[in-house]
Amino acid sequence: AGQKMCANSDKGQHLHIILNNEPYLAYYESEFTKGLPEGNYVLLSFLSRSYHESLKHKEAATISTFTVGKPKTKPDFDVNAEHLFYSRPKGEYIGEANIKKILLDFYLLNCTLTPEGKRVLAKINNSSFTLTKWQPYFIEGLPEGETTISLQLIDKDGNVVPGPYNSVTRTIKLHK
After folding, report:
1. What is the reported pTM?
2. Which one in 56, 100, 129, 160 has a CA-CA gap of 20 to 30 Å to 33?
3. DSSP string, 112-126
4. What are the backbone angles phi and psi of residue 141, rounded to the nearest 5°?
């Protein structure tokens, strides 16, 4: 973590839980509970380093769907389709050391990125970047205040790959 020079959790390595592509919840213990309202859920869990980088191999993650109660709608999520889940950055970053380098990380399922095929289109404020490797990236030089980050899983023609979570936008806040 010290070599990466980015925000780090002093609690160590942990599990990221993403429910319905909402911002992840970090769990540092092997057992936990979370109350959920009635509805259909997609749960992605993956191992994460102390500085929140996801481990990127098949054995490091699980995906499942489940229902709480008796919702009026049926679940509509194909676990075998290609999916992009947004992981980092999220929330607020406070302090000059924490805002210098911001980790950009995402999780892919059933998909490989290549320059000629599937890619991730990242938009950070008014700048766009095409990502062709599934790896962590670092964002540097962001101004204080709000930053908007969008990630889209796109095909070779630049179209968003069908899927409920393959296009997501989040806003983070940076303060010295």
Report:
1. 0.89
2. 56
3. ---TTS-EEEEEETT
4. 80, 20
- The pLDDT of residue 85: 96
Name the CA radius of gyration of the chain, rounded.
Answer: 17
The whole-angstrom separation of Cα 163 and Cα 161 is 6
Per residue in 150-176, pLDDT tens?
A: 999 999 999 999 999 999 999 999 998
How high is the mean pLDDT in each 10-residue block of the chain (176 residues)?
54 80 87 91 86 78 94 92 95 90 94 97 96 95 96 98 97 96
Amino acid letter, 21: N
Question: Tokens for 72?
Answer: 């009026």
Distance CA 33, CA 18 (A): 14
User: Rounded distance, CA 94 to CA 7, Å?
Assistant: 9
- In angstroms, the CA 73 to CA 121 distance is 31
Structure tokens at 92: 């607020």
C-alpha 87/C-alpha 92 separation (Å) is 14
